[in-house]
Write a structure and sequence with these properties.
- It is elongated and about 90 Å long.
- Helix content is about 20%, strand content about 40%.
- The protein has about 260 residues and is α+β, with helices and mostly antiparallel strands.
- The protein has five helices and 13 strands.
- The strands form two sheets. Strands 1-4-5-6-8-9-10-13 form an eight-stranded antiparallel beta barrel.
- The chain has one domain: Lipocalin (Beta Barrel), CATH 2.40.128.
Amino acid sequence: MTRTRAIVVAIVALFAVGGLGIWVARDQFLSGDSVPELTLPSAAPSATANAAASADPAASDDPPSADPTATAAAPGGAGTAASLAGDWTIVTDASTAGYRVRERLAQLDADSDAVGRTSTGVTGTATLTLSGDTLQVTATDIAVDTTTITSDRNQRDNRMRNEGLQTDTFPTASFKLTAPVDVPAEALTGAIVDVTLHGDLTLHGVTKAVDIPAKAQLADGQIQIQGAIMFPLSDYDITAPNIGGFIVSIADEGTLEFLVTFSK
């Protein structure tokens, strides 16, 4: 074999191996996930009716009361603001948490959302306190068993055990509220309200103070909270997985998503 022919063969082989690597990475990781973002379920009809009754005194046969905590009933028989005060526990099988990260293979135009979630590993508690006429969430402690997070690809999940989230080393993520959150009065009618959760997020063994924008709703005697926060992966010492020299994550940022349900 001449030197020129050897060089040509080597180049062809290099492209073949590279092409195989690209195909494997694309097939195993860039699958075109189209998992929708987490959202609160629609308000129950009873919540809508309660909200309308509160807005229109003529729609109710009961005379208005001077005590808002006595009349602002939550949907589904959850009770008054006073009865909502106390300790609440996460309903694990009605709660979900996980990650969303943008993927790309090398320089190819093949962006895809990789989404991993758990619906069995979310636990925790919350405390609601009534001070005068103000209902507040004064404590929240949420934990996620990261080893239970799965995506649509076993290969991705297996790599997450020792790369990325490194769930074998950091099996727990958590969030603890560090400042009280006022519960808007309209929340007691079943309306979806916007809240900001100030607290400490621990992920990959690193704890950071964060403000998480969220939505909350009282429905059927339960509290539902949905939120998401995007952050640089480097903030939590997370390195995007690398497959055979091909960069999978195109940006040093990811999103934490959650939808948790509390029951008293």
